[in-house]
Amino acid sequence: MAVTPPPASGRMPVSGQAGGEVKPPVFIFYYSKNNRASFNALAGALESSGPPGLELLFPETETDLLETVRTALDRGRRPAAGLSFFTSQASGARNLISRLRGRFGNDVAILAGGPHPSGAPEEVLAMGADCVVRGEGEKTIIRLAKLFLEGGRAAGTINSCPGTAALDDFPPFSPKWHLFGPIEITRGCPFGCAYCQTTYLAGARPRHRSLENLLALTELMNSEKLKSVRFISPDAFAYGSPDGRRLVPEQVEKLLKGVRGILGREGQIFFGSFPSEVRPDHVTPELLELTRRYATNKRLVIGAQSGSGRMLEAVRRGHTVDDIYRAVKLAAAAGFGTDVDFIFGLPGETAKDEEATISVMKDLTDLGARIHAHTFMPLPQTPLARARPSPISPKAEKFLKNLCSGGKAFGQWEAQRTIGQKALRNMP
């Protein structure tokens, strides 16, 4: 299928324009556990700015998704199935699209978005999707909903320019459909790490949700008796920074103090922990003290990625090995445990680089850190999208397994290695 950008008029390419009586559509979002934040945001956008009369359904398993589509067709509705997935989920998404097509043919419109479709739209169209939304989806899902309500059907690729959506314009969740989750406080990253999609899909200029908007959202959650607040950010400690590099601790304090004031002592605030992380070079005594004073979490997620200075430079991390040691030591002194991310198998990684990473990991675990182990997977729309993963040595594999068995490491590194090896076999 040809890749088709939106026409200059702003109207999307459509196919299958209905004639005569138009059956009302229903959007069916595959609300799988690992993709809920994406659909929370889309539902929030449709609730706040979408057309009236749109029905949304949220099946949580493949079986329920297929049954929901079947039920919609039996009721005379036009179903649009929405899928969002990462590269690690691409194989499963391919199988699911095949099942939808095999069972319902063109009676169901299949819409795809998220990190992998955004980076590889042609591949996802070839899987059988009708339409791929590239990049940020809030504005586009509203346009798609209006189009479907008018009896149209989108086809091809719809591009959204990175860095165009103001976070305050759309809520991160939907009270109407009873969907709540973490609040995205920052989108975009200035560092452009070569293996990561964030900068290339969301832009290099960080956009922050305003303090007023964040506190209003917290008030809403509190009114719903939701007393646990988590945040989504590529670097929580950079909240409020004009460029993502210069830290503004007073903005972080206003955020944490304000949320704590709404939730009260019984509320829980998770800051700098999953689904966020912090950069090692941004860990400071002041920010640690603020987090300790207002937040609930006793652990921080720190993105280190390699113990080799050469590899840190090669993948454009923008920090040093010394920054990693310093961050873990400062966190420990402030009373925080740490989960430190490392990636094995980075392209160009040598035995010497691997040894350096193992050495740093040993030191950090001696300091009380846990290792969150990853294996490099080439992600579309990144500088390393077509780079070959380096093999993990038997020594490193044994080391990681021993750490995991001793409770000093965790992660999906073995599954990620399988995905990376498959990508390697498919490369020319």
What does this structure look like?
Mean pLDDT is 92; it is low at 1-19. The strands form 4 sheets. Strands 2-1-3-4-5-6 form a 6-stranded parallel beta sheet, with helices on both faces. It is α/β, with parallel strands linked by helices and 428 residues long. The protein folds into 2 domains: 25-159, Rossmann fold, CATH 3.40.50; 167-426, pyruvate-formate lyase- activating enzyme, CATH 3.80.30.20. The chain is built from 15 helices and 15 strands. It is 40% helix and 15% strand. The radius of gyration is 22 Å and the shape is globular.
Main structural class: alpha/beta
Number of domain modules: 2
| Helix percentage range | 25-40%
SS summary, helix count: 15
Q: Mean of the pLDDT scores? A: 92
CA gyration radius, whole angstroms: 22 Å
Shape: globular
CATH topology value of the largest domain: pyruvate-formate lyase- activating enzyme
**SSE order in H/E notation?**
EHEHEHEHHEHEEEHEHEHEHEHHEHEHEH
Beta-strand portion reads 15-25%
